[in-house]
């Protein structure tokens, strides 16, 4: 399956249930789920009632905390509501074991969104994630043949570097992970990271730095037949006042996609880009229209071609040339 086909796949309709910080045994340095999402912990009876009446959804997603850090009885209580609808849960690598896997399997969990964030031990320690890269690999080996695994990665964490971000991607691809969400670290108010930032002990990435590194990560992943399904945070309008610093932009994902196109053009000296209209923002957005290439709009759904070569082939060529 190539890039264009993958982009045309229908996305599942997910009914999200936010459980802010529920099941988290420690607090990561950058995290305050309530201010990041604007959600408060719902009453469990209310959750059950709202789920009972659901129609026309493909999955129920439990987000915003550490689902498998909950007591097994509570996990099963939440999963047993509407057993006919597949579930997706978000969790951390250090609370995955055989017993947990057995519960998730029993209750129709299809997808595990795994907050990896980095494979580098120093980054994980300084971000107070409280697990190691080895724990990540152990968790993935337990999950990967039984569930769809979506790995979450972050850039710009304390002690992080471009080389560490790319190495995290490389290791995860080698373990067989193919779906990713990636976002740069944003400094939210009322977090430990905000204190470090105010003391001058943490320097956030600039927007340009974040866009560049995420573009390289996208190329590495999608050049190896993986897919990045989300780039950057969605922060509700009401919560923007809690962003203290960091590379936030409401169209961050499109900025990264545009940068990917520009990097390929510059690396290979591309002279002509043929593209279908739905890719206009990727091809011509964020300054790309100033590139000295010819732009040619083609019939819908055809995708992107650079000097006649399909975009997916260019991603593959570029990914093979990334050095770090
Ligand atoms: S595990 Fe996730 S939800 Fe829990 S404190 Fe860390 S970042 Fe926040």
Automatic annotation (TrEMBL):
Alphabetically ordered keywords of this record: 4Fe-4S, Iron, Iron-sulfur, Metal-binding, S-adenosyl-L-methionine
Every Radical SAM core domain range: 9-230
InterPro entries named in the record: ELP3 (IPR039661), Elp3/MiaA/NifB-like_rSAM (IPR006638), Radical_SAM_C (IPR032432), rSAM (IPR007197), rSAM_horseshoe (IPR023404), rSAM_sf (IPR058240)
Gene Ontology terms: biological process: tRNA wobble base 5-methoxycarbonylmethyl-2-thiouridinylation
SUPFAM superfamilies: Radical SAM enzymes
Pfam families per UniProt: Radical_SAM (PF04055), Radical_SAM_C (PF16199)
Organism domain of life: Bacteria
GO cellular component: cytoplasm
Required cofactor(s): [4Fe-4S] cluster
GO molecular function ontology, one term from the record: 4 iron, 4 sulfur cluster binding
Name of the molecule in the record: Radical SAM protein
């Amino acid at each position: 399956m190539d890039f264009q086909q993958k982009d045309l796949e229908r996305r599942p309709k997910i009914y999200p249930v936010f459980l802010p910080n529920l099941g988290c045994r420690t607090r990561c340095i950058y995290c305050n789920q309530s201010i990041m999402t604007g959600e408060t912990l719902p009453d469990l009876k209310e959750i059950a009632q709202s789920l009972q009446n659901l129609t026309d959804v493909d999955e129920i997603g439990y987000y915003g905390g550490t689902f498998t850090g909950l007591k097994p009885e509570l996990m099963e209580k939440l999963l047993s509501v509407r057993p006919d609808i597949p579930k997706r849960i978000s969790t951390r690598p250090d609370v995955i074991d055989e017993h947990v896997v057995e519960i998730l399997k029993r209750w129709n969990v299809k997808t595990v969104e795994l907050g990896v964030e980095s494979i580098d031990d120093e980054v994980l320690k300084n971000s107070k994630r409280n697990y190691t890269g080895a724990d990540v690999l152990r968790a993935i080996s337990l999950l990967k043949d039984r569930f769809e695994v979506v790995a979450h990665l972050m850039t710009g964490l304390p002690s992080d570097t471009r080389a560490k971000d790319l190495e995290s991607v490389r290791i995860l691809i080698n373990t067989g992970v193919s779906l990713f969400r990636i976002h740069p670290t944003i400094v939210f108010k009322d977090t430990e990271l905000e204190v470090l930032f105010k003391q001058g002990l943490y320097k956030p990435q600039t927007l340009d730095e974040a866009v560049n590194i995420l573009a390289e990560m996208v190329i590495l992943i999608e050049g190896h037949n993986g897919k990045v399904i989300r780039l950057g945070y969605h922060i509700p309008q009401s919560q923007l006042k809690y962003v203290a610093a960091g590379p936030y932009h409401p169209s961050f994902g499109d900025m990264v996609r545009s940068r990917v196109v520009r990097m390929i053009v510059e690396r290979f000296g591309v002279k002509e880009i043929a593209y279908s209209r739905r890719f206009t923002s990727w091809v011509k957005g964020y300054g790309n229209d100033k590139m000295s290439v010819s732009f040619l709009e083609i019939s819908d759904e055809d995708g992107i071609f650079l000097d006649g070569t399909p975009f997916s082939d260019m991603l593959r060529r570029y990914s093979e040339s990334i050095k770090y």
